[in-house]
Design a protein that fits this description.
mainly alpha, 83 residues, extended
């Protein structure tokens, strides 16, 4: 193949197949929920994470073992002096 530059957008699914649009949509919804509740969007996101010993089962019944996401959220928010 030959690599070429173009100013035309792709006409096929490209790196995401709708995933990026879904992420952008739900992030906007979370922001709207936070505004409606008068809360910080971080707090809404943090409340909706799967837990470690509790709230660690998906709606399909899959248990999420060793969930590091709550720890990562906490570390990042404190590291960035977000609050």
């Amino acid at each position: 193949g030959t690599g070429c530059k173009t100013n035309y957008p792709p006409n096929t699914a490209f790196r995401g197949f709708g995933g990026p649009q879904g992420v952008a949509t739900i992030e906007s919804i979370i922001q709207d929920i936070a505004c409606y509740l008068g809360k910080d969007a971080y707090d809404v996101r943090r409340m909706n994470l799967y837990g470690i010993d509790e709230r660690n089962t998906t709606h399909y019944g899959e248990i999420i073992p060793h969930n590091k996401l709550p720890e990562i959220f906490d570390t990042l928010v404190h590291t960035a002096d977000y609050k």
